[in-house]
Amino acid sequence: MREDIINLPPAETEQPLYIPMVGTAYWDKNVVVTRKCFWSCCIEYIVQGRGKMEINGHTFYPSKGDICIFPLFSDYSCRADQNDPWVRMWIDVRGVLSNELLKLYGIENEYVIQNLNLSGIFKRVFDTASNKDLSPSESNLRLTLYFYEIIQRIAIHVRKNQSEVSDEARALKNHIDRNVNCNISIHELSALIYRSPSQTIRIFKKAFQCTPYDYASNLKIETAKLYLKNTSLKIKEIAYQVGFSDEHYFSNVFRAKTGVSPKEFRHR
After folding, report:
1. Is residue 111 a contact partner of residue 38, using CB atoms and an 8 Å limit?
2. Running DSSP on this structure, what letter comes out for residue 18?
3. Distance between CA atoms of residues 44 and 89, nearest Å
4. Inter-residue contact 241 to 221 (CB < 8 Å)
5. Which of 35, 49, 70, 173 might form a disulfide with 86, Cβ 3.0–4.6 angstroms?
């Protein structure tokens, strides 16, 4: 895989959000890239090609014209299509505000956004990154404003698509979101919308491309990551907060999902 990378000088003052580099990746059909608990937020625009991605337990097949989001501390694996490999423009975003913005705009669990042409904004990002006449602070200011615009465009696009999600599917998701500290059974969800278990799973999967169980499991791990990163709660207390009564079982599930133990994640 070949990459054209533009490295930017550090801003003149410490920033909670900054962009140290941007680049274009020309994927080879034989390349597989895997990251565990990756320490950077990355947003990409697929210029051409297609392939398979697994991001935080979710599987996608993004292609030309799609946007991909890899939030801070994500686990992911990417493989380009054998006959039509990707060309991907990417923006590397550092600082704690990257994930906070995703949460504020309600897109922290949106990883692949289909058919959202942001090539114009990405071109402006690359033009700014290449402009040697700008000071580091001015360059970072412009780049972070473009990042805000990208986030807003994604949020608007996602909300528009979500308006097409059925009321039943939205009710199921909201119930899971509000009860991350509980272990919700499929029978409880079925009773919520007066459907059979098989119908309930089908309705949820059609709307969100995964089963209710998979969504709830990934939500628990993502919530646990936030507790580990932002609080001093003990591992046992965090396990309880996300619906695990046994600390060791929680640690095993966390490691299976992320590749590291909760203690290792917090240390990183």
Report:
1. no
2. E
3. 5
4. no
5. 49
pTM of the entire predicted model: 0.66
Domains of the chain: 2-162 (2.60.120.10), 167-267 (1.10.10.60)
Coil, strand or helix: which one is 194?
Answer: coil
Angle at alpha carbon of residue 57, lines to 244 and 144, rounded to 5°: 105
DSSP 8-state code for residue 63:
B
Strands of 85-197, DSSP E: 87-94, 112-113
Matching residue, tokens 């801003």: 11
Q: What is the mean pLDDT of residues 167-191?
A: 91
Q: What is the CA radius of gyration of the chain?
A: 20
Structure-block tokens of residue 139:
């360059």
Among residues 111, 125, 118, which one has the least CA distance to residue 23?
125
- For the stretch 87-146, pLDDT in tens is 999 999 998 788 889 988 989 889 999 999 999 999 999 999 999 999 888 998 999 999
Encoded amino acid at 22, one letter: V
The per-residue pLDDT for 97 is 87
Asked whether residue 75 carries a pLDDT value surpassing 70, the answer given is yes
Contact by Cβ (8 Å): 129, 55: no
What one-letter code names the amino acid at 40?
A: S
- The pair of three-digit structure tokens given for residue 172, joined into one six-digit string: 């199921």
Distance CA 250, CA 245 (A): 8
pLDDT higher than threshold 90 for residue 232:
no
Indicate whether 264 pLDDT > 80.
yes
Strands 74-80 and 67-70: unpaired
**Distance, CA of 241 to CA of 22 (rounded, Å):** 38
- Tokens representing 100 are 């906070």
Tell how strand 58-60 and strand 67-70 pair up.
Answer: unpaired
With beta carbons less than 8 A apart as the criterion, state whether 97 and 63 touch: no
Distance CA 109, CA 72 (A): 12
